[in-house]
């Protein structure tokens, strides 16, 4: 049984926040314990901060390679101004740096085929500048995945994906690349 933390739980929120926020919670708990509890109970109050310390360490570990938000915004602005030829070349080079063999496709649902460790992933990114993304391009990608026998598929868009498209992607196992993931992929 796979355990999943509720999205709006305190620990889930702290995991998404900068690591130092959890450390600040630890400091508040420790200081409050020292100030409000009798001396004999202070160690127990301090132990109440340990889960938050664990969350701070886990968040720091996850965020250690996360790009600077200002750099992400700058990079995404540059990407939004690119032509399809430049953007596709940039994506192709980024995946090649990660060890993928990249093949351009002329299939309506997929733009690139990524091959690594005998695993084929289809990538749809031609609509990266679309103002909004609905279900149709994801249906085309799912169809391409079935037709071409790929084991996975990824969709790249700078615009938000509609709720119905997100549900469809989740049901079909299509990875919707986040803007942060895209920035990490494209940064040298």
What does this 3D model show about the protein?
The model has no long low-confidence stretch (mean pLDDT 91). With 188 residues, the chain is α/β, with parallel strands linked by helices. The chain folds into two domains: 10-63; 69-186, Trna Endonuclease, Chain: A, domain 1 (3-Layer(aba) Sandwich), CATH 3.40.1350.10. It has helices at 10-16, 19-36, 42-47, 50-63, 69-80, 84-97, 136-148, 163-172, 179-186, and strands at residues 101-104, 112-116, 119-124, 152-156, 174-177.
Strand content: 5-15%
Number of strands: 5
SSE-based structural type: alpha/beta
Radius of gyration using CA atoms only: 22 Å
- CATH architecture annotation of the largest domain: 3-Layer(aba) Sandwich
The averaged pLDDT comes out at 91
Write the element-wise H/E pattern from the N-terminal end onward.
HHHHHHEEEHEHEH
**Count of domain modules:** 2
Q: Extract low-pLDDT stretches.
A: none
> What's the end-to-end separation, in Å?
38 Å
Kindly report the spatial arrangement of strands forming the biggest sheet: 1-2-3-4-5
Report the biggest beta sheet as strand number plus sense, adding barrel if it closes.
5 strands, mixed
């Amino acid at each position: 049984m796979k355990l999943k933390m509720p999205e709006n739980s305190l620990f889930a929120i702290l995991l998404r926040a900068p690591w130092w926020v959890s450390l600040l919670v630890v400091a508040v708990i420790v200081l409050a314990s020292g100030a409000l509890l009798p001396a004999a109970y202070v160690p127990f109050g301090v132990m109440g901060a340990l889960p938050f310390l664990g969350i701070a360490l886990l968040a720091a570990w996850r965020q250690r390679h996360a790009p600077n938000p200002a750099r992400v915004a700058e990079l995404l602005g540059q990407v939004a101004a690119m032509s399809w030829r430049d953007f596709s070349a940039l994506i192709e080079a980024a995946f090649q740096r990660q060890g993928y063999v990249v093949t351009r496709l002329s299939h309506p649902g997929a733009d690139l085929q990524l091959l690594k460790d005998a695993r084929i992933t289809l990538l749809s990114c031609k609509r990266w500048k679309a103002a909004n993304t609905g279900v149709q391009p994801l249906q085309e990608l799912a169809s391409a995945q079935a037709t071409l026998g790929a084991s996975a598929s990824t969709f790249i868009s700078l615009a938000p994906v509609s709720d119905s498209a997100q549900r469809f992607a989740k049901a079909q196992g299509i990875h919707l690349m986040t803007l942060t993931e895209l920035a990490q992929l494209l940064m040298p």
